[in-house]
Amino acid sequence: MGTNAGTGHIDARYVADLARIELTDAEAARYNAQLNAILTYVEQLQEPDVTGIEPTAHAMPLANVLREDAARPSLDRAPVIKNAPADVDGIYVKVPAVIEGEES
Amino acid sequence: MPLIDLTIKQAATALAAGETTSRALCEAFLARAEAVEPRVKAFLSLDREDVLRQADEADRRRASGAARGPYDGIPLAVKDNINVTGQPCSCGSKILAPYRATYDATVTRKLREAGFIFFGRTNQDEFAMGSSTENSAYGPSANPWNLECVPGGSSGGSAAAVAAREAPAALGSDTGGSIRQPAGFCGIVGLKPTYGLVSRFGLVAYASSLDQIGPMTRTVADAAILLDQICGLDPMDSTTLPGAHGGYAAALEAPADVRGLRIGLPTEYFAAQGLAPDVRRAVEAAAKTYEKLGATLVEISLPNLRYAVATYYIIATAEASANLARFDGIRYGARSPEAKDLLETYRLSRAKGFGDEVKRRIILGTYVLSSGYYDAYYLRAQKVRTLIRNDFLRAFEACDVLLSPTAPETAFKRGAKSADPLAMYLADIYTISANLAGICGISLPCGTGDDGLPVGLQLMGPALGEKKILQTAQAFENVAGPAKLPELD
User: In this structure, what are the phi and psi dihedrals at residue B191, rounded to the nearest 5 degrees?
Assistant: First the structure.
């Protein structure tokens, strides 16, 4: 890629679908305008020469960070389940039907 | 002195001497909050009974000789994206309105063990995305210096609470300037630690490679005190840095001496378009003050700085799009009652639960990570991030600290920038690069602009250079005096 970033164009509705967000028509139109202005602004990142430059994922590189593999208490179930929008008997999180026709 | 004028350090002395109690302190701050909150709106929630219960426990501990330390019983406001067991943690978002924290963040646990009182939840831009608190789903906070102006953001509620003397200090979080910019706008001290100095466990993630929790206080000494409490390696956050950290308050006990200190002035920062003349004047006067105190001013070039805003808004939004995928109406938070199946549950819960700026950033972040654009945007931004980081590594060979404005102008009026997201982003130019480079930065007050609003002075230091920037900040505060705060009467 690299060179064709300048041709980038966001279709806000398509991308919002990927991100599982429903947009109204007004939102889609507004985001299209705003996000494409931002994309034009970030085109400047094509200017600097990054040949041979390693990407930085974290500013303070640490590798193979391990902690002791010891059993520890988990969160209390009751307050966690209480945070769920719906539950079954205070034990399970109730989830909407995944497969059509199935009772949730 | 009225109790609400006390700093953490002064309150600790007064508590130790038996001159006051935690209950008296908390009642004073609660009364102040009651008086000014209708105008300032710094807090999303402040539970009077809960605060007084904590205060009475602290007083009992102290009376029985079992105080948890010098700070036992001192109130501290907490930004609404840091988990405190049993308290709300809405992140300024509707999607987390029903949520109650089920665990303590690591910083919370440490502060609890030191006896601090959790004094309310402060307002913020939704999920820390913003520079004005106007993106809070619960309405904006006001700047205590001018109630028509924003307090900055995203930790605007924390800054406003401290400046309005509703709390002696607060915790904020800083992903691209969210501690330093509101501290600058409200005339207080705000410190963004080196990435990895403070655990992020229990901080609701916005951009994981950039987020840090830090102190927002009235004095440099108080910032050091809080940083001592919250820093350190944490098995719950694999990005925390090993080694012995702390000793920041102790480092300020010796007289602050900047003789021989090399202070770098980044050419690009002072040449930036949009730097207001009054802000420039105040910051250059501060540099002169350092020169008079014996520091050497050095011109420094950071040539890749101009790419910082673009780099930030790709990396931060990419990380945000992944981090915010967890808010889907299933395990916690608000679920849309209209959804008929699982996919609609996601789509409608997120559509209703997230505000405008959050959706905008999730869409941008999803886009730059998507197939065909990843290399062009995200990978490239990560490489430019390396260039920016290298600029700072080189700069700190030629100087000890960098000095700049915290923001290009003083606090702006509510609504002035909300229609143009890009204009709002561009105002972050002075703070964003410290997050990209992972280095530390502090904002402290350095006078006022033509409008009478505070000007923030930013000092940046190399990774783990907190002692150096705190000592340098202390030297200025010794000359300028501690933060003056508005009366609001």
Answer: -120, 125
Separation between Cα atoms, residue B489 and residue B470, nearest integer Å: 32
3-state class of B136 per DSSP? coil
Select the residue of B340, B348, B376 nearest A8 (Cβ to Cβ).
B376
Does residue B484 sit within a domain? no
Number of structural domains found in chain B: 1
Within a domain: B105:
yes
Per the CB < 8 Å rule, is B363 touching A56?
no
Q: Does A60 sit within 8 Å of B194, measured CB to CB?
A: yes
In a domain, residue B342? The reply is no
B158 within 8 A of B170, measured Cβ to Cβ: yes
Q: Is residue B270 part of a domain?
A: no
> Is B2 an 8 Å CB contact of chain A?
no
Q: Give the pLDDT confidence of B232-283 residue by residue, as tens digits.
A: 999 999 999 999 999 999 999 999 999 999 999 999 999 888 899 999 999 9
Residue in B154, B158, B173, B433 annotated catalytic: B154
The model's pLDDT over A24-57, given as tens digits with 9 standing for 90+, comes to 999 999 999 999 999 999 999 999 999 999 999 8
The mean pLDDT value of chain B amounts to 97
**Cis bond upstream, residue B64 (ω within 30):** no
Least confident of B62-66, B268-272, B299-303, B393-397: B268-272
Length of chain B: 489
pLDDT band, residue A90 (cuts 50/70/90): very high
The ipTM of this complex is 0.93
pLDDT the model gives residue A62:
83
Q: How far is the C-alpha of B227 from the C-alpha of B215, rounded, in Å?
A: 7
CB B83 within 8 A of CB B202: yes
| Residue B404 DSSP symbol | E
Domain ranges of chain A: 1-48
Q: What is the rounded CA–CA span in Å between residue B141 and residue B325?
A: 27
Q: Hey, what are B358's tokens?
A: 């959050």
Q: Which of A59, A67, A83 sits opposite B332 (nearest CB)?
A: A83
Give the Cα separation of B259 and B292 in Å (integer).
9
Q: Report the SS3 class of residue B371.
A: coil
